[in-house]
UniProtKB/TrEMBL annotation:
Pfam families: GIY-YIG. Gene3D superfamilies: GIY-YIG endonuclease. CDD domains: GIY-YIG_UPF0213. PANTHER family: UPF0213 PROTEIN YHBQ (PTHR34477). PROSITE patterns: GIY_YIG. It comes from Hwangdonia lutea. Residues 2-78 form the GIY-YIG domain. This is GIY-YIG nuclease family protein.
Amino acid sequence: MKYYYVYILLCSDSTYYTGMTNDLERRINQHKSGYKADGYTFSRRPIELKWYLQCTNPSEAIKIEKQIIGWSQKKKKALIDENWDDLIEFSKNYFEYVHPDKRC
């Protein structure tokens, strides 16, 4: 059975990079070695693998990757830390938890 991985890296500038691959070890080594000079992580090395999810369906892995890419830094950190309460809180509308005075 072939596996696909969605992963989150912590970059040296404290940002997160989210990606998807069918060979996690190879891909992490590529990020660490600076495989692509124009890639996001190249100038943000060193990087550290903080989280990954193994999938058997590539379409599902791509869907999850795209979903996580759209998340805030706080929400990604909550996932990494397995802080389910914060993950739920940060899933709410931005104006509901950041600007309570601007609720409709």
